[in-house]
Structure formats: C-alpha cells, structure tokens
Amino acid sequence: MKLEIEDIKHLANLSALEFEEERLEKFKDEFNSILGFVDQISSADVDGDLEYSPVDVEELREDKVRESFAQEKILENAPKQKMGCFAVPLMME
C-alpha cells in the first residue's frame, strides 16, 4: 500500500492538523518508508520453533519463599501513612 498526498491530507484532517504543501510531501515519503518496513516485517517467516532467548534459562535461580519486612517497618520512614499504606499527594483529579 502506498499513500498519496490526498491520503496524507485526509489523515491530517482526521487529526485536526494543518500542514504546508511541502511538509505534506515529506510526510508522504516518511509514511511510505514506514509502510515499507511494515511490509518487510509482515512478510517475515515466523513459523516453526523459536530458538533464540535473550536470557540463558539455565542461569535463572529457583524461587524460594522467604520472610519479608513487616509492614510497620516499611512504613516507619513514610512522611504520611493512611490505612497501612503510603499516603501521597493527589496528582490528578
């Protein structure tokens, strides 16, 4: 799929954006370049077993249940607490 200037104008309109004509041409080239990469990715052969892992599975440690800190100990240095939790300022309303 290759985008034309009309497609870029339509996308800009849907996004409530306005661009000069020379910028639209640049966007068209960039979008088509991105779509070319997407075509390459979508044509990649991904059937079969994956044999690559970024983590060497043999190096993982076994999970062990162990004692943790008490809630009171963790909250000792908290400037404010509420109902056994850290109290922080409201960020959004």
Tell me about this structure.
The chain is mainly alpha-helical and 93 residues long. It has a domain at 5-42: Histone, subunit A, CATH 1.10.20. The protein has 3 helices and 2 strands, in the order αααββ. It has helices at residues 5-14, 21-42, 71-75, and strands spanning 81-82, 85-86. It is flat, with a radius of gyration of 27 Å. The model has no long low-confidence stretch (mean pLDDT 86).
Give the DSSP E fraction (strand runs of 2 or more residues).
under 5%
Oligomer: single chain
Describe the largest sheet: 2 strands, antiparallel
- In terms of structural class, how would the helical and strand content be classed? mainly alpha
Tell me the span between the first and last alpha carbons: 43 Å
Shape: flat
Helical run tally? 3
Report the CATH topology name of the domain at 5-42. Histone, subunit A
Strand order of the biggest β-sheet = 1-2
Gyration radius, rounded: 27 Å
| CATH class descriptor name of the domain at 5-42 | Mainly Alpha
